[in-house]
Amino acid sequence: MKSIRLKLKQNLVNYKLPTSFQLKETYPLPPYSTVIGMVHNTCNYTEYKPMKISVQGKYHSKVNDLATRYEFKNGMTFDASRHQIKVGEYGISRGVSNVELLSDVELVIHIVPEDENLVEEIFNAFKTPHEYISLGRREDLVVVDEVKIVEISEE
Hints:
With about 160 residues, the protein is mainly beta.
């Protein structure tokens, strides 16, 4: 069975843990759904393409960073004692939050699309992407070290 093997690097990255709020914690590796989203975005897919994913990797260390946090509640009108930003008649609060970041991430990802005809298309999309590739948050850029079509066999 044919697969696309990606060797990727990222400098500082957060694969957000959905249950963390005060400190934006991170998974140690990107979840499968995040990788599948990266593939779909890179290939400009507008509908879901089933695929199997394998993720291997390591990171050097974890660090904490500060980030600007914006909060708004649906339909809450602007109140100067509560909100820092006014958009139309609505109010937005701006504050600071802590973000956990992984440094010097190295990943090896295998992608096996259910439709084997997509292998070449995914390979070409990563060889010549239409825009920068990110994995995790939008600002978590990826450096693609290698894109290769490999044969996978079950032993």
